[in-house]
Amino acid sequence: MVNSDTQKNTDSPATEIDPTSEEAACLVPSPVVALVIGAAILGALFFAFRDFFLLQYHYATTDSADWGHTLFIPLIALYVVFLHKADLFARPFQSTWSGLALIGLGILWYAATWLAPESTFLNSHNMRAVGVFFGLSGGCIAILGWRALVWLWFPLLYIFVFGQRITDKVLLEITLPLQSMAAWGSWQALDLIGYDLLPLRGNYIEILLPGGNTYPLDVAEACSGMRMLMAFLALGTVIAYVGLDRWWLRLLLITTGLPIAIFINVLRICTLGILGMNGEEFMFGEFHSLVGLIWMIPTFGLFMLLMWFLQPLDEDEDGHRLRRGAGSAETRKAASPRFPRSAIPICIATAVLLFTGGIAINTTVDALGLHLVKKQVQPREAIASVPTTIGGWKRSGEDEVFRDTIIEVLGTNQYLQRNYVPTAEDVPGFLQLHLAYYTDLAGTAPHVPEICWAKSGLLSVRSPFNIDLDLPDLGTATDTLNRATGLPYQVISVTDPVTGVTSELPLPIGEISLRTTIFTDPENPSQRNLGAYFFVANGRTTDSAMAVENVAFDLTSEYAYYCKIQLNSTYTSRGASDDDEILALFEAQVTDFITALLPELAKILPDWRDFEGP
Hints:
Strand content: 15-25%
Helix content: 40-55%
Number of strands: 17
Shape: flat
Oligomer: single chain
Distance between the termini: 54 Å
């Protein structure tokens, strides 16, 4: 199973080994032994950070369009290690006990993320990844030694940066500017090739058609190019590392990923817009994805072309590569890996430390009832089953059906968009009800008016503010307490119209405060668009788009859902005094509507008492 390095090895470089040297005392594990030991340590690593890996796999498979590439990142990193195996195996490894300290730090860091307050960034998937990175790096150092980091630092860092899902709260800071740049660039490109366009409004492009009609092209968040940017940053980084030696040339090639992704994304949007004018089927479904895939081919070509231009700068005066060439690690035959005899107890200690840490963390997590991967909670009835008549309001027109691209941006196909008007003919006004239901989507950032309306070209009249609703008592208090808040459930009695069975359904826990924004149309300054929303998450209410994730996906819950309830309306204003009257009228209307809506929502949303546990 284990052979001495003093034995004749035809696969080793033609170098004589001094029998008295340190190398002569090294161990050369057979492939089977190396495979067993490696599998045991990797298994212990997975066990120690079990929930992180399960959640990352969940992200990669359920949201494969954005994060499916993370499954291939470890394979790319292994390929980079394989390219440098000759350098890596050129000298015996120097296993060291100091690597165990880094493993311990990773375990402690990972445990701290579970215990940190849920409203902090420390308690997040990305911060848990730091602990996993420490654990993986510490294992490599313990078994292979510090010298191995000369060739392993890049693969390890590559896995850490590109092998995990980045939270929406971080991505939005990048996606929204990219979305604006994509819209501006697409408008300029369409104008350059001769299309008649209306002025750009936010991210909304309108192409003038013969006969005076227009074709709308909404550059949605999914069209921001973020997917292309993430994919090609990962691709450009590994190409730069493998193909170039000077650090500034590598950095130059990597940073070109941003302008290349934006440029190609502009061409992709223009392609879809031009094709869409000839048929809506070109804008959605598989063809929409196919166009994006086709445009990735020239993007890869641009990367390779740029590297071809940069490679002469990576050569010395004789025209040779700085570190590679005929004797490079890619072309030299690799020696067998050699380990000191201390590697055996160090490998055992590494596996034991990871396994013991995993037992401690997983036992504590299970004992506290914490859950990273959530189970779905479907509504009791379809979201669109909200009655067409609610209190003193009735439906006006047909429910709006969103296009596939809008549904993709919204992040759910369980939605309702419907206009209501007062049943009394002499009462003016209307309210647009928008419901969007989410479950099993930890980290999803909801779309709210203060962001979406601004990106569609409307102008903010006033900073977002809250309207605290003064609602009448709608239910009867019970002795059952909500586990998260300790507040008693308020229930209403509902009789099934078919079976005649009466049941008690809970109303959302907590006061209702509407996050409200006022926008105007730059082409119609007297217009006032008001939007107000709140969320029901795991049976509780919140008005914060940032806090809803903490409410719906708190670690103590095995299940998760939230529903956005948004009311919009449009008024005409002649000045500041009218704005105050408009706001008072809007508050009165939404108070009346939500008072009638809440009992109907209780029939549709899940009865959280069945899911929150004892």
